[in-house]
Amino acid sequence: MDKVNTYIKEHQQRFLDELFELLKIPSISADSRYKDDMLKTADLTKKFLIQAGLENVEICSTEGHPIVYGDKIIDKNLPTVLVYGHYDVQPPDPLELWDSEPFEPVIKETEIHPNGAIFARGASDDKGQFFMHVKAIEAMIENDSLPCNVKFMIEGEEEIGSEHLGTFIKENKEKLENDIILISDTTLAGKDIPSICVGLRGLSYVEIEVEGANRDMHSGIYGGAVPNPINVLSDMISGLIDDNGHINIPGFYDDVEELTEQERREMAKIPFDLEKYKKAIGIKDIQGEKGFSTNERTSIRPTLDVNGIWGGYTGEGAKTVIPSKAFAKISMRLVPHQNSEKISKLFKSYFEKIAPNSVRVNCQILHGGQPYVLPVTSPGYLAAKEAMTTTFGKEALPYRSGGSIPIVALFEEVLESKSVLMGFGLNSDVIHSPNENFGVDNFFKGIETIPYFYKYYSEKF
Question: Main EC class of this protein (predicted)?
Answer without folding.
Answer: hydrolase
